[in-house]
Design brief:
Elements (H helix, E strand, L loop, with lengths): L7 H7 L3 E8 L11 E8 L2 H10 L6 E4 L5 E2 L5 E7 L6 E4 L2 E5 L4 H10 L2 E2 L11 H7 L2 E2 L2 E2 L4 E7 L5 E5 L17 E8 L1 E2 L2 H18 L19 H7 L6 E2 L2 E3 L7 E3 L5 H19 L8 E2 L2 H7 L5
Parallel strand pairs: 2-5, 3-5, 4-18
Antiparallel strand pairs: 1-2, 6-7, 7-13, 8-14, 9-10, 11-12, 11-13, 15-16, 16-17
Helix pairs in contact: 3-5
């Protein structure tokens, strides 16, 4: 870790506005249970504390927003920047056929509360292991549904602390990608839904959860789908066709239940997982002449290794 900043005043400004730590092990905060320490870690108590933290953060320090940590891979050497844990920004409110959720609200919780209010359109979120902010950033989806289907608008905070609203049409959302302003963090999202029977909504959610639990290794540490599905095909099928279902490097294993999942069998390192990702990409390229693109976010040094695009 090479970043050097005078952060005395910065730290003092944040101590009373949430949970502040230095050198926080990120393995505690990711669903893969891997990752070295973050140089600075802050869990703001509320929206105002988040804005204050962003305004106080030195311009040369990279900010990494964190929800559940379900779609990211952090190097064993850690992250030389400022991690902001958004989990306490989890408010949810309803108005007619709209639901507004804070960036830290669990997608599964949003789905349950929508069902209680008799609003359909977010059922798939019941099976997504992440929060609203992350779901917006990657246009999360499953079961032929995605966030962009019902999203109306979002609020983001910029690095200078200013807050802007962005309408759905201006986000240019496509498969697993949303165009957000550079350096911005999602504060909240508003969805427009449709009325329906609460019991019918719950039944659809139960069906989705049942299908997911029967086909995916949900009981073991994982990051969800590792690769994006190529047009007209599925990453899991391609990996299995290349003979890698169940293949293992160190403590990381391609799930023998679903080949687009990598699980931590107990002692995996980030390096083990990256090695397995690279092995799968090479095998699929050789077998099917298709280049698999990662869906999991590669943070820090991994970006250069696997995506070659810096802060991505």
């Amino acid at each position: 870790m090479n970043t050097v900043v005078n952060h005395t005043n910065w730290m003092q400004a944040l101590h009373d506005q949430g949970v502040w730590r230095e050198h926080e092990p990120m393995a505690r905060h990711t669903t893969l249970a891997v990752g070295g320490p973050a140089r600075w870690f802050f869990r703001p108590a509320d929206r105002n504390a988040l804005i204050a933290a962003i305004k106080a953060c030195p311009a040369d320090v990279v900010i990494l927003p964190l929800g559940r940590g379900s779609n990211m891979l952090i190097p064993d050497t850690g992250f030389d920047g400022f991690v902001i844990d958004l989990s306490d920004l989890d408010e949810i409110s309803f108005g007619h056929c709209n639901v507004r959720a804070g960036s830290g609200a669990r997608m599964s919780r949003v789905a349950r509360q929508c069902a209680e209010h008799g609003l359909t359109g977010c059922e798939f979120m019941a099976t997504v292991p992440g929060d609203i902010g992350g779901g917006i950033a990657m246009n999360a989806g499953c079961f032929s549904q995605q966030v962009s289907d019902s999203l109306h608008r979002i609020e983001v905070v910029l690095r200078d602390g200013n807050i802007i609203e962005i309408e759905h049409a201006d986000l240019k959302m496509v498969y697993r990608h949303t165009e957000l302003p550079t350096g911005s963090l999602v504060l909240s999202a508003t969805f427009t839904l449709q009325p329906d029977s609460p019991e019918q909504i719950r039944e659809r959610m139960r069906s989705m959860r049942s299908r997911r639990s029967s086909t995916q290794p949900l009981a073991q540490p994982n990051c969800g789908s590792v690769f994006k599905n190529p047009d007209g095909d599925h990453a899991a099928r391609l990996i299995e066709a290349a003979g890698l279902k169940g293949f293992r490097i160190g403590g990381a294993q391609i799930s023998d239940q679903h080949a687009n999942f990598i699980i931590n069998t107990g002692e995996a390192s980030s390096a083990d997982i990256v090695a397995l990702i690279r092995r799968a990409q090479a095998a699929v390229k050789q077998h099917s002449n298709i280049e698999l693109e990662t869906e999991v976010r590669m943070i820090g040094e991994w970006e250069y290794i696997l995506t070659g695009d810096g802060n991505g």
